[in-house]
Design brief:
The chain is α/β, with parallel strands linked by helices. Helices cover 50% and strands 13% of the residues. Helix 5 packs across helix 6.
Length: 171
């Protein structure tokens, strides 16, 4: 695998997994959040963001972490050799997000854009809470359109992700 999309709800563990997978496979790691957010949690110009995503996806190898399927989603899917989907329960994701807020509050995480320190945000928590109802069906449809030569890996638990990661790069 040379081009892997890692997708799923915030708090599912996808960033931790994507960074570790990139390390195991010796591939560049790309954070979609880092490309999207502007200092002060400002949203970018949508066309400029899509162009940044396409530029990153044009490269020959990467592990790209993040959804944003409305922005260059078709292009990224077409370039990907595999999609790893973290399809974890709501409670796991909420716990992950709350733990992350508690442990990194006020600091900018490495996968986040400069000027975007971790914060408590009710709208974001609502997004995570409603992800399974609102975003999951969209991601399922997105993944259903893969070609026969593309691989879909779905994790229902973090233990599955850990087992996959332990075997990655050993074949």
């Amino acid at each position: 695998m040379q081009r892997v999309l890692v997708m799923g709800c915030s708090g599912s563990g996808k960033t931790t997994f994507a960074r570790a997978l990139a390390g195991r496979l010796a591939l560049p790691y790309v954070s979609v959040d880092r490309l999207f957010w502007q200092p002060g949690w400002r949203e970018p110009d949508k066309e400029a963001f899509a162009a940044r995503l396409m530029q990153a996806a044009e490269k020959p190898a990467w592990v790209m972490d993040g959804d944003f399927i409305r922005h260059a989603g078709e292009f990224r899917r077409a370039r990907a050799q595999a999609i790893v989907w973290f399809d974890l329960p709501r409670g796991v994701c909420m716990t992950g997000v709350l733990r992350r807020i508690a442990t990194t509050h006020g600091r900018v995480r490495p996968d986040m854009a400069p000027g975007c320190p971790e914060r408590f945000d009710w709208d974001f928590l609502k997004y995570v809470w409603t992800y399974r109802d609102v975003m999951r069906p969209r991601l399922a449809a997105y993944c259903a359109s893969l070609r026969a030569d593309q691989r879909l890996v779905v994790f229902k638990t973090r233990a599955q992700a850990g087992a996959f990661l332990a075997s990655a790069g050993t074949a």
